[in-house]
Amino acid sequence: MIDLHTHILPGLDDGVRSLEEAVELAREAVAGGIAALVATPHVRDDYPTAAAEMERVLAALRARLVDEGVPLRVLPGGEIALDRLAELSADELRRFGLGGNPSYLLVETPYFGLPLDLEDRLFRLRASGITPLLAHPERNEDFQQDIDRVARLVRSGTLVQVTAASLDGRAGKRARETAKELVAAGLAHVVASDAHSPSVRRGGLAGVAAEVGDEQLARWLTTELPAAIVSGDPLPPRPVRRRRFWR
Prior knowledge:
- It contains ten helices and nine strands.
- The radius of gyration is 17 Å and the shape is globular.
- Helix 1 (19-31) packs across helix 2.
- By secondary structure, the chain is α/β, with parallel strands linked by helices.
C-alpha cells in the first residue's frame, strides 16, 4: 500500500515531534503493509512550511531510516491550505508535488466552512496543470450536509482523499457516514492515514478492505491509484463494485 497523506516530518507542524517518533511511525507503517508513504506537512498560516524545509527534514528522516534498517520509502509532498494556493510560487507548488509528482497537489479541506470561491480556486490550480487531491472533505460540516458539492468538484477534475480514521469511526459518526457515502457514490479516489503520531492513528490502512467491503476496491483506493499518482502513470479505472457497501 501507499499512504499519500502523513505528518511524519518532525518539527514542521502538529505531527511527530522527533526523529525517534518518526521512525516509530515508519515501523508501524511497514508492519501495517505500507511500502511507501508521502510526507505532507501542513502549509498554512500557523505552519508556513517552506519547500526547502520539507526537503531538508525529509533527507534527514530518510538517512535515519536507512541507519535503523526500516524498509520504507518516504516521498516528498505537502498539505496546502486553500488560501496559500495563490500565494506560493509555481516553483514552490511543484516542489510540494504529491509523492514527487509536480502534476498533483494535496489540498487541505478546512474543518469549518468553505470559501465561496472554492470551485474557482481549484479550477485555477487545474488550469495551471496541477490536479488537486482534496484531503478529508468528509470531516467538513458543509460537505457532510451536501455531498453533491463534492460531486461537482469531482466532475470538474478534482480527486478526493478520505481518511482511514473516518471510515472506521475513529473520527466520529458524521465523518464515518460521509466517508462511506463518498466511497459508495464513487466520489473517493484515495484512502490515506493522515497520521500525525505513532499512536493517534493506529490501524493505518490495514482495515480499509473490511470497511469498504470489497478487496479489489480497497486495493484501488490504497495501492493502485496512489501508485499511479506517484509514478505519473495514467490513473487506473475504478473497479466495479461486487457487493453492497454497508454503513
